[in-house]
Structure formats: C-alpha cells, structure tokens
Amino acid sequence: MRRLGLILVPYLWLLALFLVPFVIVFKISLSDLAMAIPPYTPNLDLTEGWAGLVSFFRELDFENYVWLTEDALYWKAYLSSLKIALISTALTLLVGYPIAYGMARAPEEWRPMLLMLVILPFWTSFLIRVYAWMGILAKEGVLNQFLLWTGLISEPLIILNTNLAVYIGIVYTYLPFMILPIYASLERMDESLLEAAEDLGCSRLSAFWLITAPLSKQGVIAGSFLVFIPTIGEFVIPSLLGGSKTLMIGKVLWDEFFSNRDWPVASAVAVILLLILIIPIILFQRNEQKQREADG
Amino acid sequence: MRRFSWFNATSLTLGFAFLYVPMIILIVYSFNKSKLVTVWAGFSTHWYGELLSNQSMLDAAWVTVKVAVVSSSIATILGTMAAYVIVRAGRFHGRTLFSGMIYAPLVMPEVITGLSLLLLFIGLNVDRGVMTIVLAHTTFSMCYVSVVVSSRLVSFDQSLEEAALDLGCSPFQAFRLVTLPIIAPAVISGWLLAFTLSLDDLVIASFTSGPAATTLPMKIWSSVRLGVSPEINALSTIMIALVTVGVISASLINKHQAVRKKREEQAAERQL
C-alpha cells in the first residue's frame, strides 16, 4: 500500500503535467485555426455524447502538417536549426577538447579548482551569459574597440546579429557540457599507456591519435549530444545574438505562438521538432548505456 | 606532471579566459558612469542605485525567489520519491513509461515544454500566474532532482536499510534514520539545482505566466531585447556575485566535511 502511494504521487504528477499536455499539443496540431476562444476548432463537447466524440474526431486532420511542408519557411527553419546545431557542436568540441585535456593533465591538486571554474558559469544565469556577448560583439562593442585600437582592423566588424554571433553564443554557453564528459573520460585514462607507446617509438602526436583519442571517444560522443540536442530547439541565443537572417525553429515556434497567435501551426511545429529530436536522443541513450556496461 | 606542457598551459589559459573575460567585462561596465555601455566615462555606482529604486525590478525579483523556493522544495520531495521508485520499487506496471517521463524533460526543448503546459492550463481554464509557473518549474526540475538522487541511491549499500528493518524500524523510520542521512548531500544538491534552474528559466515562465506575474528573467528579457543597458549589467553583477559566493562556500563546506570524515576514519582505525 505504501509502495503504491510512493509510486503514484510522482507518476500522477508527471502524467498530468507532462504527458497530458503533449496529447493536447498533438490534438491541437490536428485542429484548425479559428477566431474564437480558444482560437482553434473543434472542441470536444462531452455533453453531446457519442455523436459529439465522432464529429470531433472527424474534424481533426493533418492539414497543418501539409501546410508546414508547403511553406518554405518551416522546412528551411528545421534545416537551418540542424545546420547551426551541427556546426556549433563541432566548434564546441574544438574549443572544449583542449581545455578538458589540459585539465586532465594538470597537477592533481589543481583539478578540483579547475573543475569548479568550469562548473561555476553553469550556475550563473544563462540569459546573462548570452547578454554579456551583446555588449562585446556590437558594432561599437568592446571587441571592435579593442581591435580598432590595436590597428588590426580599420573598419568595425559586423558580428552581432549574424550567424557568427549565434555560434559564439552557443559555444560559450554550452562549453561546460562538452568539457565535463571529456574530462571525465580523460581523467580515468591510464597514463602509463602513453609512456609505453612512447617507449615503443610512437611520436607524441601518434600516441595521442592511437591511444588518447579512442579512449576519450565516449566522452566526446556524450558531450556532443549534450550540446547538439538542446541547441536544435534553442530560442534565447538566436533571438538575442542572431539577426533577421538567422532562422531557428525554436524562434519560429515562439513567433508563431506569440505574434501570429496560430496555435494549431505552433503545435504542429512542436510535434515535428520532437520527432526530429527522437533520433539523436535514442542514439545518446544507447551511448550512455554502452558506457555503463563498459564500466561494469 | 611530465605531460603538463606549454600546450596544456596555453589551452587552459585561453579556455578559462574565454569563459571568464565576458563576465568580467560585464561587471566592469556595470560601474560605468555613462549610459552608453560602450564608452567608459569613469567609475560610478549610479546604476546600482537606479536598480535598487526600480520597484518593478524588485517585485520581479521577489516573485522569482518565491517561485524558486516553492517549486524547488516540491520538486525535491517528488524527485526523491521518483528516484526511490526507479532504483528500489522493482518492476511494476508502466515502469517504462515512468522512467521515460523522468528522462524526457531533461532533453525536451523549453519551447515545447512551455507551449504544452500553457495549452494544458488554458484547456483547464486556470488563471495563469505565480501558481502556474510553480507547477511548470516543479515538473521539469523534479526530473533533474531524481537523476541526481538516483545516482546516489544506486551506489548506496542496501543492507544498511535491511539491517534497520530487521532491528525493528518501520520502513519510514528506516528511510528517515538510515537512508536520508546518507543520500542527504544528493538531495541538497538536487534542491540547489532545481532552485537555480527555476531562477534562470525564461522560456517556460514566459509561456506559463499570465499578466499578473513577471519573473526576473522575463523582466531582463524585455529590457535586453532593446539592447544593452547598464542597469542590467548592475543586476547581472549582483547575480554573478551571489552565485560565486554560493558555489565557493558550498565547495569549501564539502572539502571541510571530506577532511573531517577522513580524520574520523583515521581515528577509528587507530582505535582498532
């Protein structure tokens, strides 16, 4: 009895506030836009009994999904979100790997301190960390002032409100997610393997490619998914740092909902986004499982 | 130490500079006299004064703290229960769905979570405000709590609990006297995580809130969208300072406890 209560409380909570809302999103994505409150039809009217239920289901259709494939805006936004997520994941890996490597090779008594320095930004507001770059990348911003002062450039660079600014913002805010799993896998590595390889005549570089890189593969995969998955639906970074040409699906969904007030289309956008995300999420969980099994 | 080469030193220096210079610039410009964030016009704490006399900002901060305290506390209780169910309850009907619902919110885009909850609240005709934000935050942060707590529960020696039961404890007493003290650090970090997530959240709060309640991130958002403002820099500085003090003191406490534990273990060994 007590066990049942223990299971039921969190179970019912999640059913009511996680699963049911999704069913509602799905249902509304099959509805039509209407000038009413709520702004879509049909609405389930249980007072009409069975007949009401039948006519309710009859009126649902996939019209909004057809609309999504016809209007270039949407599929372009999906593609460009995937592209931006992919490029910024690669960039984050490029920036994050050397940092994780340096941390794992640092003297042991420094490591807790370094780890804390990586985690600290994670606890500070995401919004503020993105905002910090607005003042740096602006046309009269700190970066341009500095570059003009050094004489490296004679004209201010236009970075804010371009895709480049979005990449910088993503790399900056998601860096800890990349560093931590790579660091974890590198720190576990047995360094005597490298000594053995060098004793046997490997150069440092080839020892890295033959030993360190394969041993840190799990961490690289985990970190890449941790950056890639949330980036696809990112909203704050493209809105603050991106320009009118930056197309990301999270922003499209937001505008569809708050500006156009087209709830059925916004819901259809959400359903498709979820379908796109399922593949990387399953791959990520497989990778985690594999790692758990390898750890025994 | 052999491998701590110049390459490692450079990548660490550049990496940490990348992580911290933007925040330092933000902090420096919060003390700028000029309204223009890009022109340095001398040191001043003017914007802090301005901030503290901005009543709508203070109201938003108060709403945010209220929401964060309430939602993270409920989320800690629910998340600990959920962790217990996942690690201990064994097989039951719908277990796969349950663990799916625990892990899904961790990777769910905020726009989708926000949209779906808003549609639920509208469907149920609930007045949106502090209450609905609390419900939304509790739902996603309980999942984080349960992940943190369950990783601790997995590594926990179950025979201790069984011993307590054998010695006549009720299951609840065994939980309170044996399990809870051992998983307490995970429960506390779960609460802290939930609290921070709630403080930070912009997207889900924007969807689930009504005109009656504005949280601090929503307030920052509406100001920041128009461009950089020194007042927001001042606010950011205060927030960064609070977080830094919090994280450093938490790690000092942790270190202190680890040292004490080691000392006690050594003392116990000597007595044997």
Layout of strands and helices, then pairs:
The complex is a heterodimer of chains A (296) and B (272).
Chain A: H1 2-29, E1 32-33, E2 40-41, H2 49-59, H3 63-70, H4 72-105, H5 111-123, H6 126-137, H7 142-150, H8 163-187, H9 192-199, H10 204-215, H11 217-232, H12 236-241, H13 249-258, H14 263-295
Antiparallel strand pairs in A: 1-2
Chain B: H1 6-30, H2 46-52, H3 55-88, H4 95-107, H5 110-123, H6 130-154, H7 158-166, H8 171-200, H9 203-208, H10 216-224, H11 230-271
Helix pairs in contact in B: 1-11, 2-11, 3-6, 3-8, 3-10, 4-6, 6-8, 7-8
What does this molecule look like?
The complex is a heterodimer of chains A (296) and B (272). Chain A has 296 residues and is mainly alpha-helical. Chain A has one domain (62-295): MetI-like (MetI-like fold, Orthogonal Bundle). Chain A is built from 14 helices and 2 strands, in the order αββααααααααααααα. Chain A has helices at residues 2-29, 49-59, 63-70, 72-105, 111-123, 126-137, 142-150, 163-187, 192-199, 204-215, 217-232, 236-241, 249-258, 263-295; strands at residues 32-33, 40-41. In chain A, 43% of the residues are buried. Chain B is mainly alpha-helical. Chain B has a domain at 53-227: MetI-like fold, CATH 1.10.3720.10. Chain B has helices at residues 6-30, 46-52, 55-88, 95-107, 110-123, 130-154, 158-166, 171-200, 203-208, 216-224, 230-271. Chain B starts with 5 loop residues before the first helix and ends with a helix.
Concise account of the structure shown:
The complex is a heterodimer of chains A (296) and B (272). Chain A is mostly helical and 296 residues long. Chain A is built from 14 helices and two strands; from the N terminus they run αββααααααααααααα.
